[in-house]
Amino acid sequence: GKGPVMTSLYCTDVLCCMIFLLCIVGYIVLGLVAWVHGDPRRAAYPTDSQGHFCGQKGTPNENKTILFYFNPLRCTSPSVLLNLQCPTTQICVSKCPEKFLTYVEMQLLYTKDKSHWEDYRQFCKTTAKPVKSLTQLLLDDDCPTAIFPSKPFLQRCFPDFSTKNGTLTIGSQIVFQDGNGGTRSVIELRDAANGINKLLDAKSLGLKVFEDYATTWYWILIGLMIAMVLSWIFLILLRFIAGCLFWVFVIGVIGIIGYGIWHCYQQYTNLQEHPRSVLTVYDIGIQTNISMYFELQQTWFTLMIILCIIEVIVILMLIFLRNRIRVAIILLKEGSKAIGYVPSTLVYPALTFILLSICICYWVVTAVFLATSGVPVYKVIAPEGHCIHENQTCDPEIFNTTEIAKACPGALCNFAFYGGKSLYHQYIPTFHVYNLFVFLWLINFVIALGQCALAGAFATYYWAMKKPDDIPRYPLFTAFGRAIRYHTGSLAFGSLIIALIQMFKIVLEYLNHRLKRTENTLSKFLQCCLRCCFWCLENAIKFLNRNAYIMIAIYGRNFCRSAKDAFNLLMRNVLKVAVTDEVTYFVLFLGKILVAGSIGVLAFLFFTQRLPVIAQGPASLNYYWVPLLTVILGSYLIAHGFFSVYAMCVETIFICFCEDLERNDGSTEKPYFITPNLHGILIKKQLVPQKQKE
Length: 694
Known about the structure:
Elements: H1 14-37, H2 41-44, E1 66-69, H3 78-82, E2 90-93, E3 101-102, H4 103-110, H5 115-121, H6 134-140, E4 146-147, E5 150-153, E6 156-159, E7 161-164, E8 167-170, E9 175-177, E10 183-185, H7 186-192, H8 196-238, H9 242-273, H10 281-284, H11 297-320, H12 322-341, H13 348-371, E11 375-381, H14 403-407, E12 412-419, H15 423-426, H16 428-462, H17 475-486, H18 488-514, H19 521-555, H20 559-572, H21 576-607, H22 625-663, H23 676-684
Antiparallel strand pairs: 1-2, 3-4, 5-6, 7-8, 9-10, 11-12
Helix pairs in contact: 1-13, 1-16, 1-18, 4-5, 8-21, 8-22, 9-11, 9-21, 12-21, 12-22, 13-16, 16-17, 16-18, 16-19, 16-22, 18-19, 19-20, 21-22
């Protein structure tokens, strides 16, 4: 008996290969063009009304790293503040004001002590003088009429809102002078910014999260390294004690979930005995400060119920799938033998990780350079909103001599954004879409390449009659080279389909975001149905693609022919889905959960200062759940990368087994390639129909 041997190697799906290579060349050209036109400093540094960077080295603003708004009351929304399009003058300062003071009050103090002007002038233009009348000051617009207590955030001075006894205040005051002879309340300042308090909370959360990452990145890397070592250990142990290790997975997962239930119960009872707040989740609503939720009894009670449900589901699945799990363990043992003969497959996830990291970094860098491409664009801004020339493009150098300045007294020519009228600048939105699409295509291609290379290596193992003597040297390297040289077009074809589906999903989410305020119940229902359909379609195509890549690795045919053959083979062996996918993946899923859960428990004890004997965790964290969730998610992704090798191995072996049964009959002339022990068990379990003998 002979296995399916590719008698003639040839390139498949050449047209798709050429299109794919052209897209990559275009992607590289796009990156180079964006690099020439873009300037990441525009994203890193805030820009004043004259288009100058705050804090840029080698400029007069080198020591002035913070952007200051003359009159934040003129800003109508938080997005206007962050986009630097607030209709008020903005200058670079070295620090934010710390107290209330109007220009008129400063003039009165200036007659007694000239140092008050030195404190005030740092929030004015360099041409400002302390002896102007209020009318002249408003006309020249070179000083703010009043300054408010502010704090630097995102390199910008934001009003320093705080809550005192349930009342919103700024600088411990509820009312203040606006410098124009009027008295304003803190509510007016907040409303003028259209909910700036929530914006500050959200951005404050982002800053605190960044600080936590800066403090714990070293420990996060150590946790991820431990997860990698633990995943490797589990894969090696599967080679020898798959059955025993399965029960370790089961007991470990049940134990970790049980620990979570116990911890939630402890927190719930503690809050019952010593309540920190009488509020409920209905009272606080949606908050950006997530830590507030952990002070509520409802939060811990809800988490406890969710974990209890998960625990029951896992136990029930173990009970009802016990027979299938036995077969899955046998398949894992056979997969362990294959990995033992081709140990290089355990290192392949690292290569996949490197390639994916390169794709992600290139996409992010290109997106940043595209977003910062252009030249400064200045717009006419009328503080009072009564100018027919408002939002027109202007030149700040000659603005005061134009008809616009005469027609609209008090109008400003301020920096608005970076842009341009060239052909390149007009197509920047299209370039962003192209950048995202090719990124998705490349990501799916890297995954497809890994699946095809692994399938080729494991198929080489299966179709070797005398193992390991008939296994060629470097099977993974050979399979990888064969996939790159002959089947790049087929892999690009399959990954293109997935990329198109994912692109449609992103467009759907974008439309949902844009139409969120105008949608009704019917549109919400349709969007939900579309999301569900695209999710099902994406997973179905991924499943079919994975099996098509296995057929490509075995026979070397094009994508459509391989997908058709794989689909027909699966339909003839429909129970294959129940074994190699659902049950085997369930067993491996328990392993992933055990790795992520074990590292998560250790990280929780460490970041909450509960392991002082082993190591002293960081004591200055704002939110311990930031590094904790990062470690858990990262550990799961690492375990998924390693265990996916086993999943691909089992799936390839089963596909080859189904082919083996259809090609051979077990006779001396056509012997089976599968080991007799595994063949007997699979036939006994009736996972595939026995070939009827004539």
